[in-house]
Fold this sequence. Notes:
The chain is of the alpha/beta class. The protein folds into 3 domains: 2-130 and 298-326, NAD(P)-binding Rossmann-like Domain (Rossmann fold, 3-Layer(aba) Sandwich); 142-293, Dihydrodipicolinate Reductase, domain 2; 334-401, Malonyl-CoA ACP transacylase, ACP-binding (Alpha-Beta Plaits). It is built from 14 helices and 20 strands. It has helices spanning 11-22, 24-31, 59-63, 81-90, 100-116, 134-139, 155-167, 171-180, 189-192, 195-209, 228-236, 298-315, 350-357, 378-390, and strands at residues 2-7, 35-41, 55-56, 68-73, 94-97, 121-122, 145-152, 211-212, 219-220, 239-250, 253-264, 276-284, 287-294, 325-326, 338-339, 341-346, 361-364, 369-372, 376-377, 394-401. Strands 7, 9, 10, 11, 12, 13, 16, 17, 18 and 20 form a 10-stranded mixed sheet that branches. Strand 4, helix 4 (81-90) and strand 5 (94-97) form a beta-alpha-beta unit.
Amino acid sequence: MTNIAILGFGVVGGGVADLITNNSYQVARLGGDDIRIKYILDLRDFPDSPFADRVVHDFDIILSDNEVDCVIEAMGGSHPAYEYTVAALKAGKSVITSNKEVVARFGDEFLALARENGVCYRFEAAVGGGIPVISPMISCVGQNKIREVRGILNGTTNYILTKMFSFGASFEESLKDAQDKGYAERNPDADVLGIDACRKIAILTALVSGELLPTDRIHTEGITSIRKEDVLNAAKVGLSIKLLGRCVIGDKGMQVMVAPFMLGSDSPLSSVSGVYNAVEIIGEPIGNVMFYGQGAGAGATASAVVGDLMQIMRSGRSYAEPVWTRGTDGICNFADFEARQYIAICGADRGAVEKVFGSAQVISEGEETAFITGIISEKTAQEGIKSLERLGATVKSRIRLI
């Protein structure tokens, strides 16, 4: 019998309890043992829940019970998730989490503590919800020379952009629709400002590089500045717009970022729509591999959490786990990042554009001039924009291409 405790009985914690209970035969068969939910930690009581008798309000009850083999942290946020995770690992209990914030901030420390205490720290659900990407990156593709990891890492922003492309809606209209459908929070900043995707690309970067970057060192943009006009211009030349997290690894180091990108139809990420997520890995000799599926929701996230639990039950410490260090040694100056750039301006014509950027693909002219440059660095793009502004132009939008 494997005894577990669930910290937090919200969407994810409740989903984990339901999956273990409803699919008990499959879970026991694949994990090699029965699972008993011994405790559920929450501030609230749940008198109408079938798990009401498992609810406790004091974490020390869980910590002091030697029968508890594994703690599932589904609380969200950094605190007290950090303190509970440290205490559980030091007490010889494995920890599984779906909490991308705490992994992105403290994952290196947790993995080291797990090694020191002969237990496991797993976080498959922290990136991509139910998409199995963490374990394959560790055990199946890590032996390749990874050139890039990139992905649509936030279902809310992907839904909003899909709405804008499919129906010509504005950002504001699309956000309201996402909130009405429950895809976006009333305060959507973590999604639409790119914060959520930043945490996830930090985790993916650590998996391929071994270095956990502080999220404030990752260039991060959201989608709040994307306009109807940009969507229409992209469609004119067969491009779509997606918010991507990217870790590009070159000979001189890594470029890590979260930002909107325009993608051609030849990119497998361009067709990922709605609330779905996808992660693409590019390496040698494996080539391009993509993982695709639902990025959120009780069922999908619970599936990843319980998958981690079954791996611990089957393999314990014999299963490969990453080793991370914290730092910024491998990251390059974002000013040196190179890409083609889509720029929309008012107050300047084709002649002014060509004077500053040389030959450019002009998409539209009139009240606004929208064009795509050749491959240029971020520094060159900024200098060009300043030159256009000195000529009297006003820059309305700038989006990179991939």
